[in-house]
Amino acid sequence: MFRRNGMWLAPGDWGGPRNDESLCERRVRYRTVGDMSCTGAIDSSASTVGEVIAEIAASRVTERGASRADDRLSEAAMEDRKREGYF
After folding, report:
1. pTM exceeds cut of 0.85
2. Within a 10 A sphere around the Cβ of 28, how many other Cβ atoms?
3. Could you state, in order of their start, the residue ranges of all structural domains in the chain?
4. How far is CA 86 from CA 2, 6, 59, 73, 78, in A?
């Protein structure tokens, strides 16, 4: 994982990491529907469905707003993906 714009992102051909971003191992989970090219991960120690539900219930950060990397890229990023056939 590497950190960009306050989010943990997975490395890949889609755009990361950059030269100034270092990789590290983290235990994470994804909070929104998507994949590593458009969704940031959050730190998580959950290993069961019940633990995931407990994390979500205790969170004060919205599932969508905090981890959708495309939202931080540009206002039209998701629309651009739709036009390119991602959905």
Report:
1. no
2. 14
3. 2-83
4. 23, 24, 29, 16, 9
